[in-house]
Specification:
This protein is of the alpha+beta class and 95 residues long. The protein contains 2 helices and 2 strands; from the N terminus they run βαβα.
């Protein structure tokens, strides 16, 4: 035994002479853009994005609202939510 688990606590002390609070903005840069036109979000898995069958997306946004015609398009999280809302009451076919 004799193993001590030490919880490391870091005090948030500001060192530096400029009194400005520096915020590190870690802007997420993804690889998979959302396929909904005019959206501009990332649809990476990391960002909560999902893949969806083209036809299902068209049911909500229309064929002109989906930027590319591929069998599975990429949806960002907000768009997926929109889709889910629109499809309330329909039987779940996935998840
Ligand atoms: Zn989107």
């Amino acid at each position: 035994m004799g193993f001590k688990s030490r919880a490391k606590k870091r005090k948030a002390t500001t060192t530096g002479n400029d009194g400005s609070t520096e915020e590190t903005k870690a802007e997420f840069v993804g690889e998979v853009p959302c396929d909904i036109k005019g959206c501009g979000n990332w649809a990476d898995k990391k960002a909560g994005g999902r893949k969806m069958a083209y036809d299902r997306a068209v049911e909500v946004w229309g064929s002109s609202g989906v930027s590319q015609k591929v069998r599975k398009i990429s949806l960002c999280k907000p768009c997926y939510r929109t889709w889910k809302k629109e499809n309330k009451g329909q039987p779940k076919e996935w998840e």
